[in-house]
């Protein structure tokens, strides 16, 4: 009898301590296989996609923290953030961060043995990416660089910003007018992208990383010839750029010229020569280009130090509808480009 009493007592104690024991885990215990993450700020609804390398950095920050289940959660506050790890858009694990030492996971609350670094979490909402300036007149329009997640959202983004948050290469505040098409800039924003077209973001800061005066100078002379004999532009829906002689431009820079010209004049753009258009059947030899014009640049030279561009340029729509100059000079004066065309010809 005594033996059964001891066994029964042992079972009661075991059950008691088993029932009272608190579940403990670390993120590394979960063996997560993920390729990306998303962090959401619950107070604003804003969220930031986190690419794989950065997602693993976030995971490494959290993986060794021990979390112990709380037995009483009746006074628990609302979550500050929701952190979701994903693999190819499929949710792997999701956690709510309540405060600097509390999380929610699978409808249970856990306290952290080491405080969570909320400052680090908040910095995740300061998203940084680089872009190329398309236009900087009444507003700032940019094209995200290749490889950025922003480019997957839109190839054109309108950037809103507050006063005194535009900075030059030396870190000093500059006006919008000092940004030039072709400039590479670094943008810091909260990760929230309005899915319009162009897309829209609000920047905390914009800094010029590198000027590309060569590109902005080319756009200035293209605009100068576009404005000549405006009747040649009537009812066009495409501009063909003949960039054959521009051997000092990269393919990406040529693509940028096409994008910028298409945006400025609201037309389709492509590269090509008169001969190529005839060969493709787009034009018949010595006939009128019904829905477009050809703008050809040649003999371009650019002095980076003096910011002077010289070239020849022409605009062609038909044998009797063309205009050009073999002596064009564009000079950057610190505020914009002044273009001079000499020996103009018309046919």
Automatic annotation (TrEMBL):
InterPro entries: DUF3221 (IPR021598). It comes from the Bacteria. This is Uncharacterized protein. It comes from Anaerocolumna cellulosilytica.
